[in-house]
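Bug #77: duplicate submission created two jobs. Keeping one. Sequence:
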Amino acid sequence: MALLTYTRDMSLRVGRKLRPAVPLVDQAVCSASNIGLLLLMAQALDLTGFGIFSIYWGANAVCLSLTRSTLGVPMNIDHHRLSFREFELEAKHATAIALSFGSLIGLVLAGSAIAIDALELRYAILALAPGVMFSMVQDLWRYAFTAENRASVALVGDVVWLAPIILFLIVGVLHPLRELPNAPLWVAATWSGGALLSLIALSWTGKGFAPRFSTAIIKVLGERRRLELAGDGLLASVVPMITGVTIATLSAPAILGAVRGATTVMSPASVLIASFPLVVLSQASKRGIPQGSRFVMKVLTLFVVFACSWGLFSLMWPSQLGSALLGETWQAARGIIPVAIIEVAGLAVWNGAISIYRVG
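Kept job's structure:
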């Protein structure tokens, strides 16, 4: 049996030997696009500018976490209990909600960017705004395709998104981004454009889910379980956001830039934590309560060990490597990495506990 084949609708199918690993690979590729954006922004902006950008990026992360926990996670949990028509209808309703909410958040970010004095940062936020809407719909579709055992389709879309980011990273290696005119604008536009291309690729390879607006959306959002999941997602994402805004208010945006730089260094461990809702929870749900809980605990232990090991390893990087990745942010971020290690390990434990609760 071939490990990789294509069906008539151009959806990539993966053999049984590779199928369990595809969602994790997809999560890594998806997160790589965001990590690449942060690395490029750290190189293109000064420490203060990167701190201000981090506030906007944190707001985007909170909103994405909300749609993911309210719309994406339930599809992963409920897929095996729904018929094909029921699941497709739920995905279409969820797409309508994500599209509406993403458009609203994009408009809010764009409107607030007008108050930024630095023109290069203002234009960057304006270019980022449409990508917020694209990314929310794209992320929802990833969850839907993974629930349908079509994670390979989601992987295709994320590879398309990552490709232009990689090209820009190569440009950053060949030429300092701080010397390129309007570099932050082009970085944000590349990320947003990649999100749009990813949606187009998903529509072509997986046929997507056309948004369906109806009164049933009110019923979907009013489900008690979704409200509980939304609370979990908000609690996990709002706390870092509030912390960041407090730091920027009481001290300076430059300090927030250093904190964001440290968390960016810890991104490889954060990628694994981000896979909990999409990969670990899905696999645990299929195993049932006793086996699923033990599975989560084993994965949680591995994630915590990796987070601590990666953080300690990053502290040994030569300054040339750190500066190449984060620009002038590196020197300030290096001293915060030990705190970032504790934060990431704590988030892993939090996500593990929540996953065990959801399996039950």
